[in-house]
Design brief:
alpha+beta; 374 residues; Immunoglobulin-like; 3 domains; single chain; 5 helices
Length: 374
């Protein structure tokens, strides 16, 4: 077992008599019960008490499933940013306020809501959207940890939104303090000052995969090209099938050419999706013959055995290519695939009516010839 990874099991106990949920976190590495967090239900206590027994069992099972899933993707993201901080910036800890306030994520709390803003306003961190790899500069992620190191909120940011980089969320139950982190695509991982929480909230923590908005696609692609050109890859273009099939994204189109699917690797060897190492395909996206992005999807490496996605093909697209970014091995582009144009009903009607049209014209010509001989 990797000693650099924090392994936890989450168990939920539903106290139907008092109307609350208790979450236990057990650290596998140290074999110690770390904490007990009481999560009060939004349901009225009497509603919980009076639930049928089978419904109570179902609720308990549902909560257990949630607790085991919450934070997997977000923990993977934090682990990868920590790895990249050392690889790209030669430090094994996040930068903090001593490095300048512009990159620091500051938390403000009001009425049970926490708002994180990157920068103190003098200045705020810039959010520069661009298709130019040398220009794009933005905060790609903001996430927040509680007093026990649990990630209770994460947001992917769209550089098109402009400065400041900001996110808000309802403070979860059991929270006594919050610490915010941000990842700048150029300047790495930053941590803000810890803020005490005077009044805990009533919601369960939520932290899950979010897909990029369409407006952000060009900037994300530009940033991936920028990363590919820098160490450890130092390549001016994406890797291709000639460098290995395991990392290559392959497209399969539907028979009518209106949709497609992508899988990274082949049946002999699919690309791994390992959230603990971590080693995974972080994103897959599709471009057309003009290099315009037509689809993009972020991927969660937990509980899946391969990297894949499906996509729709806009009308008029003649060729599609798939791209993927592996967090350890960089940017890859798969073979281009020609799109078979779908036959529309109008085209079918025109095709079916053509013989009749030709017959009418032929008859008219024949009649004209007959009259000409009279």
């Amino acid at each position: 077992m990797d000693t650099n990874v924090r392994y936890n099991i989450y168990l939920t106990y539903v106290d139907f008599k008092r109307g609350n949920f208790k979450r236990y976190r057990f650290d596998i590495k140290t074999r110690v019960l770390i904490d007990v967090v009481t999560i009060f239900s939004k349901l009225h206590i009497n509603q919980i008490k009076n639930m049928p027994s089978l419904l109570k069992v179902a609720l308990t099972t549902f909560l257990l499933g949630i607790d085991m899933a919450v934070g997997d993707y977000c923990s993977t993201i934090h682990s990868d940013f920590t790895r990249r901080q050392l690889l790209e910036h030669s430090v094994d800890t996040p930068y903090d306020e001593t490095g300048g306030a512009k990159h620091v994520p500051f938390i403000e709390i009001e009425n049970g809501m926490a708002t994180v803003t990157v920068g103190d306003g003098n200045p705020f961190h810039p959010m520069v959207a661009s298709e130019d790899p040398s220009t794009v500069h933005f905060v790609s992620h903001i996430y927040v940890m509680d007093q026990d190191g649990n990630i209770v909120h994460l947001e992917n940011l769209d550089p098109v939104q402009g400065a400041p980089a900001v996110t808000s969320f309802e403070i979860p139950s059991g929270t006594t303090s919050l610490t915010a982190y941000e990842w700048c695509n150029l300047h790495g991982l930053w941590v803000g000052p810890t803020v005490d929480v005077a009044t805990e909230g009533t919601t369960m923590p939520t932290c899950s995969l979010v897909h990029p908005t369409e407006a952000s696609w060009p900037s994300i692609h530009a940033d991936l090209v920028r990363m590919q050109s820098n160490p450890p890859f130092s390549e001016s273009s994406p890797y291709t099938e000639t460098s290995g099939a395991k990392h290559t994204p392959y497209i399969t189109l539907s028979e009518d050419g209106t949709s497609g699917s992508v899988v990274v690797g082949t049946e002999e060897v699919y690309h791994p999706m390992d959230g603990e190492k971590p080693h995974w395909v972080t994103v897959i996206y599709i471009t057309d013959e003009n290099d315009t992005i037509i689809a993009m999807k972020n991927l969660d490496p937990n509980d899946v055995d391969k990297a894949e996605m499906t996509f729709d093909i806009p009308e008029g697209v003649k060729e599609v290519s798939a791209w993927e970014f592996c967090n350890l091995h960089g940017l890859w582009k798969g073979p281009s695939v020609s799109v078979k144009a779908a036959v529309t009903m109008e085209e079918t009607e025109e095709t079916e009516s053509s013989p009749a049209a030709y017959t009418q014209v032929s008859v008219a010509i024949a009649l004209l010839g007959l009259f000409a001989t009279l």
